[in-house]
Amino acid sequence: MRERLERVQRLSQRVEEIADPDAREAAEELVDAVLELHGAGLARIGELLEGMGEAGAEAKRGLLADDEVAELLLIHGLMPLPPASEELPVVGAGGELPVVQAGCGTNGNGAAAPDRVTGLKERCELCQAELPAEHRHLLHLEERTILCACETCVAMRSGEGPYRPTGTRLLWLGDFELPDELWAGLRIPIGLAFFMRSSSAGRVVGMYPSPAGATECELQLSAWEDLCAANPVLDGLDEDVEGLIVNLTGGRRQFAIAPIDDCYRLVGAIRDGWEGISGGGAVERVVPAFLGELRERAEVAA
């Protein structure tokens, strides 16, 4: 499924690059019509299952638990978002990567914080103390989650067992070197990704946004080593807690080292606004504003 999705994304990008506006519009309209047809069929299947009582409900739960079916439903906007207590999906071969809890003000699905929606206060997931909208996070390496945490729990639990604080370094890399051939060697199917050193995977992994959330891409180790040789700042990339964000969309060339929760927050915000196969403009809506805010907060690398 992942390979098929990557192919569809590449073809969608080629459609967007068609020079003739009438031909491009016709191609996009065709894609939208096919999506609408398939979406209506899938929605009808859901309606029929709901009318079959407990047997239908059990069948629906089984379908939603299947990764390939879930990804297809996400493309058509038919997959319900997880409740606040559940994790957001990470699609890929390894899978042993931290994900951001839903429901947090700096969460991974781009949703508003609970107090902005229902009046409920966000709470530390370790001691239940109330939290401000801007708060710290802890990585739980074994459960692959990022937990909202108060300052006391961050101070007391950091380094205890599986807990690690997420990174705090935010570095804007204005002189970052990434030739086109080196980017091609990293085999990322779209022009936006983040890279992290994963202790659980035992290697560097690349993640890019998709309708299913953060999708892992198999990296060529030699290409990453070449990237580090061209940019020695990557030698200090802290394992698990921070990542390198690369944005080449819309003719931009933007690079930053950011806390890992910010990396997942970017991917999640795109996922939340994703429409159809290619995203429906979600990247162009979300990325400039997100990285603009990130740059305002970042230290500029010397």
Describe the overall structure.
- The protein starts with a helix and ends with a strand.
- The chain has 10 helices and 12 strands.
- The longest helix is centred in the first third of the chain and has 30 residues, at 21-50.
- The protein is of the alpha+beta class.
Please list the strands of the largest sheet in the order they lie side by side. Answer: 1-9-8-7-10-11-6-12
Instruction: Pick out the low-confidence regions.
Output: 81-103, 105-119
How many angstroms does the end-to-end distance come to? 42 Å
- State the major sheet: 8 strands, mixed
Number of domains: 3
- Report strand %: 15-25%
Number of strands: 12
Shape: globular
Helix content: 40-55%
Sequence of secondary-structure elements: HHHHEEHEEHEEHEEEHEEHHE
Structural class: alpha+beta
Mean pLDDT, to the nearest integer, reads 78
Rounded radius of gyration (Å): 20 Å
**Number of helices, counting only DSSP H or I runs of 4 residues or more:** 10
Provide tags for this entry.
single chain, 302 residues, alpha+beta, 3 domains, 8-stranded mixed β-sheet, 10 helices, 41% helix, 18% strand
In short:
The protein has 302 residues and is an alpha+beta fold.
Helix-strand layout with pairing:
Blueprint: H1 2-16, H2 21-50, H3 53-65, H4 67-75, E1 90-91, E2 99-100, H5 114-117, E3 136-140, E4 145-149, H6 151-157, E5 163-165, E6 171-172, H7 180-186, E7 192-198, E8 203-210, E9 213-217, H8 221-230, E10 242-247, E11 254-259, H9 260-272, H10 282-297, E12 299-300
Parallel strand pairs: 1-9, 2-4, 6-12
Antiparallel strand pairs: 3-4, 3-5, 6-11, 7-8, 7-10, 8-9, 10-11
Helix pairs in contact: 2-3, 7-8, 9-10
